[in-house]
Amino acid sequence: MATPFLEEFPELAHLSREDLEDLLTDPLYFQALFHSLDRVKTLYQGQAELGMANESIANNNLRLEENLYHLRSETQGAFNEAKALESRWIELEREQKEVYQRFTPQFLLMRLKHSTTAQDDASEALASAFIQQQVHPGTSTPTGGAGVDEFIKEFKELRKVYHKRAMWGERWGDGKIAWRD
């Protein structure tokens, strides 16, 4: 008798109808017959092989676990050190920029202009002080000749520095001075 059941499970074709009914009613008989089937044996064998392979991999992972944790902590330490160095680098770049800011052409030109103005103010202050010191109240004639020579020497030096700075400022403003980085 060829039924779809027997076509699917040809190993059970030798069983009688009563054996098949017993198979349905007796769980122990069913288990014994089920575990004797070649397909089931192959399935269990594959499952056992996979279990052993999995266990082998797990043992290997456990063996490597300590080294991996050690490498993880070393890597974390190196990462933290790199982050600290990176933040230090940013800080040093900022400090360097601040230091170099004092040497940019724009800043140097500004300093030259300020020092030129300050030099002019200093020479004018010297001249004013000299005039105030030399003129007697009520007269317009200076007194003493020795102080005049020293004043002229000092005033001449201050004005020479002023004119040099003014000349450099003009040249710079005209684009005749080029700064190299």
Can you offer a commentary on this structure?
By secondary structure, this protein is mostly helical. Helices cover about 80% and strands about 0% of the residues. The chain has six helices and no strands. The chain has helices spanning about 5-10, 15-25, 25-35, 40-100, 105-135, 145-175. The longest helix is centred in the middle third of the chain and has 64 residues, at about 40-100. The chain is rod-shaped. About 0% of the residues are buried. The mean pLDDT is about 90.
Short summary:
The protein is mainly alpha-helical. It contains six helices and no strands. The model has no long low-confidence stretch (mean pLDDT 88).
